[in-house]
Each structure stands twice: as structure tokens, then as C-alpha cells.
Amino acid sequence: MGEYVKRVLVTVLLIGLLFALWSTRSILVLAFASVVIAIAIAQPMRFLQKKGMKRDPAVTLSIIFSFLLITLLSLWIIPTLGKGVADLVKDVPAAAESAKTAYESFWANTPAVQSFLPEIPEANSQDPIDAESIREIFNWLVKSGMAIAPDLLGGLGMAAGILVNLGLVLFIAVFFLLEPHSYITALLYLIPPRKHPRAIQVIKTLGVTLTKWLNAQLFSVTVIVLLVYIILGVILRMPNAMVVALFAGFATFIPNIGAVLPIIPITIFTLAYADPSKILIYIPVYLAIQFTESNIITPQVVKAQLNIPAGYLMLFQLLITMALGALGLVLAVPILACLIVFVREVYSFDVLKLRNVKVHLEGKV
User: Fold this and answer.
1) What residues contact 334, with CB distance under 8 A and at least 6 apart?
2) Cβ(216)–Cβ(250) under 8 Å?
3) What is the C-alpha to C-alpha distance for residues 352 and 129, in angstroms, rounded to an integer?
4) How far lies 17's CA from each of 183, 186, 266, 336, 340, in Å?
5) Residue 357 in contact with residue 365, Cβ under 8 Å?
6) How far apart are CA 323 and CA 23, in angstroms?
7) Looking at residues 211-238, what average pLDDT do you find?
8) What are the tens digits of pLDDT across the range 174-221?
9) How far apart are CA 299 and CA 314, in angstroms?
């Protein structure tokens, strides 16, 4: 009876633990993001230490450099993109009038389309749109704006939440970087003393895995920035090519979706500062660059660094996005890499004793 009660209590405890982990999953993923950022900031710190600098000044310089880099890039990319949007909006009335005139000319010179396309008889590039039409358009925009105001406010609330979470993650990452040993020591109090050396080894292996992912990601960012800037900026003369290149580089942290996000600034800058017809060149060229980088260059590096099968990664991205949202999608690769390492080290090597054992498809060991 006592054994039965013990098993019931253990089962209830495990269910409660799983429920607690699921309820706090958003906090846990923020903590994981803080660890990743702390490891990223630690890279210049280790470089400075190799050059002979002591740890405390190296940590201080790494933190200052990282925050200055984030601030400068934000102050450059966001205002440039905003100015492009403003210039594009300023040119919308003239563009709309030209488009209306071109449509009327096409309609008048193409009898085949007159049966199913409407006519705009008042279109005239020399005459502005009359005041009554402007008033009607303005009233329609006001009514539409009032209708979508709650959604816009909700979007602003979401953006504010993202900024707050980002600030919190950076703040926690600094604490992780300042005193990493204290947090590892706290984890060891949950493990039997005879397992402490093995636990420290597993933690170090997880750290090495995250460092490899960051190196592979840095390589991917560097490649996409250089390719976009050289091909689109230097060769094809796309406006604000460096901003687009940096935007595309940072977007690579978002698997799959990040590949298409730079189309937005490409469209804005092309329509605002260049011949709009060139968008038919810029976007296909960018997609070709992205396809080459994400399907030929980077996968070889990621495979060499992490050895994650592509099929497993795509399935895991779908699952973790459903569970954790956008942040889970951004961190899908490092989370999966850490899960693979943890299962391999703890379950496969320690429980199943498969270390140094080669398993063949025929079932022979």
C-alpha cells in the first residue's frame, strides 16, 4: 500500500510540475532568451580576456559596446525607414493622379477591356481631384480609422509589451553575465553531490552548443548583409541598400518568416526614392540572394556546427510557435539544439549507456 501511495504522489507531483512549467512557459522562454543574449555579449568579453584584459573591465566594455551597437543601429534603421514611409505617403496623391490618368488612357485605347472595366471620365492629369471627392475620401478615411482604432491601440499595446520584454531580457542577461557561477551553483543544490561533476559537464556542453549556434547565426548575418549590399546596393543601385542589408541580416534570426520581411523596406525605399518599376528587379534579386544563402550556404554551416536534421527543425518550429508564439519561433533553433544535447547527454549516454556505441540501421551495435 505504501508503494502504491508513493507512486500516486510521484505521479501527481510530476503532473503538477508539468502544469507549472506550461503555465510559466512565457517566462521560461524569456529566461532562455536572456541566457542566449548573455552568451552573445560574452563573446567580445572572451576576446578581450584573451588579449590580456581582466574579467571585470572586459565585461564592462562588452556590455557598453553591445548596448551602443543596438542603440546606434536602432537610431539609424528606424528613422531611415520612417522617413521613407513619410516620403512615400507624401508622393501618394501625385502617384494616384498619374495612375488614374494612365488607367483612363489604357481604357480608351483598348476597346477589348471596355466591356468589363469601368470608365473614369473625370481623370485628367491637369485637373486636381475636386473638393467634394476629397471630402468624401476624407470622411471615409475617418470612419475607417474609427473602426480600426481598437485594433491599432491593441497593436500599440503589443508593441509596448515587446519593448518591455526586450528591456527585461537585456537587463536579466546583464545579471547572468556578471555572476554566472552563482546561478550554476544554485542549480547544483537541486542535484545529488555525486552528480555535480556530470551536471557541470552537461551545462558546459549546453553552453558550447549555444555558442556554436551564435557563430553559425553570425556567419549567416554577415553573408546576407554583404550579398544584399553588394548586389542590390553597389551593382543595382538600390536606395538605402545598407539599411535594407542590415534589416535583412537581423531578420535571419527569425526562421522562414525573416526571409520575406526585408521585402517591406525594399518596397518602401524603391517606391519613395527610385523608379517604381525597378521593384520588379529588386525583389526577385533579393529572393534569389535569400534562397542561395538560406538553402545552400547557411545549411552547410548549421549542419556542421549543430548537426540538426532540417525536417526535425521545421516540425519543431511549427510546434514551438503554437506553444510560445513569435519569440518561440525566433529561438526555435537554439531551443531544439539544447534539447537534443540534453537528451543525448542525460538519457542516451547516462541512462542507456550509448556513449561510444555506434548504432547501425541494420540493428547491429
Assistant:
1) 32, 36, 209, 210, 213
2) no
3) 78
4) 21, 19, 47, 21, 21
5) yes
6) 11
7) 87
8) 888 888 888 888 888 888 899 899 999 999 999 988 888 888 888 888
9) 13
